[in-house]
Amino acid sequence: MKDTHRVNSGPVGLSQPISEQIWAAKYQHKTDGHCHDHTIQNTWSRVAAGLAACEDGTQRAKIEGQFFAAMQNFQLIPAGRILAGSGTDRHVTLSNTFVMRTLPDSVEGIMDTLKDAALTMKMGGGIGFDFSTLRPSGFRVEGLDCPAAGPLAAMDIFDATCRMLVTGMGRGAMMATMRCDHPDIEAFVMAKSDRTRLRNFNLSVMVTDDFMEAVEEDRTWSLKWEGEVTRTVRARDLWNVIMKQTHSAAEPGVLFIDRINAQNPMHYRETIAATNSCAEQPLPPFGTCPLASINLAQLVSNPFTKEARLDVGRLRSLTSTAVRMLDNVLEVSRFPLAQQAALAKRQRRIGIGVTGVADAIAMLGAKYGSAKAVFLLGSWMQTLQNAAYAASADLARERGAFPDFDAAHHMQTAQVQSLDPEVRALVAEHGLRNATLTSIAPTGTISMLAGNVSSGIEPIFATSFNRVVTRPDGTKETERVMDYAAMVFGRLYGEDTPLPESFVSVADLSPADHVAMQAAAQKWVDSGISKTVNCPEDISFEAFKSVYRDAFDSGCKGCTTFRPNDVTGSVLST
């Protein structure tokens, strides 16, 4: 066996062909055929310099060095927009996540929002909308003889606009939400049963606590417009419509919107009704939030031995660096709209998450979804959240609290109350620099950049798999990709040595395993989590519905499932 201490030491390069391809296609800085980033280390240097540019001259070099050191071994990975845009003169935003204005129920308002959305997507932002504010299809429009076209007609216009826009850094991505008491909710749920429709949208239904109670107690449910009941349905019938559609097509997702608002640290100033395109970031109108992820797989020493440990001290220091880094993003980034810039500066939301979780768990000898894995993830996220709030309080001492900070209200939020006493004391003394601090993104692309570590808090898909890659010219190729932890094990013990039992893949897990992991993390995340609960193709409909009830009862803020079938298909195969 080789020296286990050195597996994750020293500068880490691009370890798989897929990592090289992603870097070259998405993050290597090139202009007019000229290459500025010759190596991934050049990319780290560019990003670090760009994000430290707002620092005081006396400490700029020091902070730039800290940023570079955190990134160079793929321990701290900023989100894709930051990697691609920081330190360049591209007219892009460094934030992936946006929610647009509250949609006005008028042609003028819809068109104004469409323009705002186009400008945001053009600069690289993924966006979310709440379509609950548009009058139902067929309702009377004052001053006109024709009936209202309804929310879905407006969504078609937004979808066509997104399809038209090409940013050069990835296609547009949008989230549409609708309340469970909107009169057009069934049509919204079924909208993508036409597989050619709304291809640039993810859909999520905002489900209230009252609705979940009505389903549980088999009560009726009122659909309303402007406070007036338009129709009454059986709650379980509506729930079954939602469940049958997502059972067959993996959409819509479900957002537990009352919990999202109750646990929003800024609930005393705003009401949230939408998320970004992947749902990890519930945001108010004009809200935005830059993201970064800490790669836990790179923090494990002595992997696959009894001495295996995750360096909790390094997790704390990386979190502190990430807070400063993302706060700097808010200073140096362009914003598509003045309203987005203004709210970003008033609230200074940031989102620090994790990736490589399943790989780290396997390296420590635990099985994803087990009681030990649930405990480990919860303890890591608790450490991260405490470190993030402590760092934000320290930054508030240096730079000032975010302008919308209200100490009397903020100190009573669930997040602050859950902090360790010494961290709460720091917040009480200095306030916070950032309104929100933690969020777990899907991290699919940056995880492959980092050697194909497991994405976010997702399990290992498979220890090796075939991935269908679409080339710039539109052609498709299939290539073999290895899981990072499996690759490390092979280097240590030989590629022919059977993998230990701690390696479990999606096929080995129950939906309950997924939900348990999501709930363990959500307890220590002040924003949201992008997570897919994989279900077996032959899961019964009743068992499928229970996944959503389990997620609700476990404290999750939402639930998204995937069941392989002829409709959903798959881009990956083992």
Automatic annotation (TrEMBL):
Pfam families: Ribonuc_red_lgC, Ribonuc_red_lgN. Its cofactor is adenosylcob(III)alamin. Keywords: Cobalamin, Cobalt, Deoxyribonucleotide synthesis, Disulfide bond, DNA synthesis, Nucleotide-binding, Oxidoreductase. SUPFAM superfamilies: PFL-like glycyl radical enzymes (SSF51998). The keyword Nucleotide-binding applies. It is an enzyme of class 1 (oxidoreductase). It comes from the Bacteria. GO terms for molecular function: ATP binding; cobalamin binding; ribonucleoside-diphosphate reductase activity, thioredoxin disulfide as acceptor. Catalyzes the reduction of ribonucleotides to deoxyribonucleotides. May function to provide a pool of deoxyribonucleotide precursors for DNA repair during oxygen limitation and/or for immediate growth after restoration of oxygen. Belongs to the ribonucleoside diphosphate reductase class-2 family. This is Vitamin B12-dependent ribonucleotide reductase. It comes from Pseudooctadecabacter jejudonensis. The gene is nrdZ_2.
